[in-house]
Structures are given as C-alpha cells and as structure tokens.
Amino acid sequence: MSLLELADVHAGYGETEVLSGVTMDVEEGEVVTLVGRNGVGKTTTLRSIVGVVEPTGGEIRFRGEEITGSSSETVARDGIGFVPEERRVFPGLTVTENLKMGRFGGADTAHRRSVEDIWELDAFENLRERKDSRGTDLSGGEQQMLAIARALVAGADLLLLDEPTEGLAPIIVERVADLVRELNEEGITVLLVEQNVAVASALADRVYILDKGSIVYEGTPEELDADEDVRDRHLGISM
Ligand SMILES: Nc1ncnc2c1ncn2[C@@H]1O[C@H](COP(=O)(O)OP(=O)(O)OP(=O)(O)O)[C@@H](O)[C@H]1O
Ligand SMILES: [Mg+2]
C-alpha cells in the first residue's frame, strides 16, 4: 500500500477540466517530484489532494483510506501538510505568531514540532534571529522557510510543497533544498512540485511529468536525465 495514491483523478474550475485523469503514487519515505510546463495542472493536483479543489472523478487515497473530496481540515488532521505556492505567511503577525498558527487544526503525528523545536533546527537559524519580525518584513526565502516551519508545527507525515524555491536566490534555493532533504531523512514523505530541474533531480527518488492534465512519464531522475526525447516533448528544457 502506498502512502498516497491518485487514481484517474479529474478536477478543474467550473466548466474547465484541468486534470483529465491523473494517476500517481507516493510511497512512504520517498521524495517524489511533479514537474511540467506552466499551467499543466501541478498546483491543481496538490489542491485536489488537500481538498481545496473537489475532484469530479477518480479516487485519492491516503494510507489506503479514501480522502477524495475531504475538507482541507480533515486532510490536515490526517497528517498531510500543504505549503502553497503563494506561501500565505500572515503579513501582520510576527514569525513566532505565524508559527503558533500552525498549532490549530493540524495532526498529532510523531513528526509534529513545537515552536520551540523549530528554534532548535539549524535550518531555521534565520527565523530564530527574526522571531519578532512581521511577515511583511521577511525576505522571500524567510517566508518560504516560515511557511515550511509552520507546516511542521501543524504536523505532517506527508508534506506537499508547491514550488518552494520559486523566485529565490541560488544560495537560498540550496538552503530550502537542504531542509527538504533533512525533513525527508527524518521520515517525512514529500511530494514536491518543482520547476528548478536541478533541485528536482537532486532531491527526488522518482519524478512524474504532468502534461495537459495527465501524467505522461514516471521514472528516476537518472532515467529522465537520459531521456532527451521525453524532456523535449514534455518539458521543453535540457537538464
Ligand atoms: N482558481 C482558478 N480558477 C480558474 N482557473 C484556474 C484557477 N487556478 C488555475 N486555473 C487554471 O488551471 C490551469 C492549471 O493551473 P495550475 O495552477 O494547476 O497549473 P500549474 O501547473 O501549477 O502552473 P504553474 O507552473 O504556472 O504554477 C491553468 O490553465 C490555470 O489558468
Ligand atoms: Mg502552480
């Protein structure tokens, strides 16, 4: 049994179908990356898992239990953490207050961290130094670290990260990548949407490519690296 399974998931907005049958799975302990061109439905896939978008067809299972169409609150309580593309740091709250917000409605998993635990982690050194700064005063990298830290305070066995390195300076990209690796080594399973192919390849156990609403490729980063044809056709980039 996979930790997360999507079987022929359809979803969209209003009359527009964006996902036309997404099938993929994530095994416990893996880092799986989902890549694909702009607008193919990567974010919609994550939103379908966490109950922000209601699937119109197919099934989503977490630990073998069907969660298709469950509310975001239920999914969070089940142990799925979601860090959206737009990060959603509360601008008027301090770093500490933002972290405390993570305590509401999350999951009591073994991976749940207290706010104090967050300060102990080297990866969050910058946040520790900026405890009393407001969300608005944080850099993009600090906001990303805070959004991930808040998901840890909420407690997650499976972390869904939507383009966490987008718009960040190379050195900060490295830090975010190191953090994701560290969290995974501690046992958190990760489903990562990532446009930075170097990061996606460095972190992933397996890669899925989404194109126009369905999965068109699954393989290891090494296999994808060797398959120029697939990359040309579905990503339009060279690695
Ligand atoms: N809230 C929404 N309402 C209507 N259409 C939407 C909404 N969000 C996304 N879409 C459309 O759905 C399609 C898929 O969007 P989605 O955000 O899932 O793609 P993506 O692969 O994450 O893209 P990107 O790489 O730009 O983040 C796009 O055509 C987008 O315009
Ligand atoms: Mg997106």
Automatic annotation (TrEMBL):
The keyword GTP-binding does not apply. SUPFAM superfamilies: P-loop containing nucleoside triphosphate hydrolases (SSF52540). GO terms for molecular function: ATP binding; ATP hydrolysis activity; branched-chain amino acid transmembrane transporter activity. Keywords: Amino-acid transport, ATP-binding, Nucleotide-binding, Transport. It comes from the Archaea. One of its GO terms (biological process) is L-amino acid transport. Pfam families: ABC_tran. Residues 4-237 form the ABC transporter domain. InterPro entries: AAA+_ATPase, ABC_transporter-like_ATP-bd, ABC_transporter-like_CS, BCAA_Transport_ATP-bd_LivF, P-loop_NTPase. Belongs to the ABC transporter superfamily. This is Amino acid/amide ABC transporter ATP-binding protein 2, HAAT family.
